[in-house]
Amino acid sequence: MTHEPIHHLLSAKDLPPESIEYLFSRTEAFKRMRGILPADEKALDRETVTNIFWEASTRTRVSFQMAAWRMGARVVNIAPSTSSVTKGETLDDTIATLRALGCRYFVIRHATSGEPARLAMNAGREAHVLNAGDGTNEHPSQALLDAFTIRERKKSFNGLQVAILGDILRSRVARSNLHLLSQLGAKCRVSGPAGLLPERLDVPQGTIVKTADEAIRGADVVMVLRLQKEREGKIVVDEADYRKNFSLTPQRLELAHPDAIVLHPGPINRGIEIDSSVADGPRSMILRQVENGLFMRMAIFELLRGEER
Ligand code: NCD
Question: For a Cys-Cys bond, which of 13, 56, 162, 272 suits 221, CB 3.0-4.6 Å?
Answer without folding.
Answer: 162
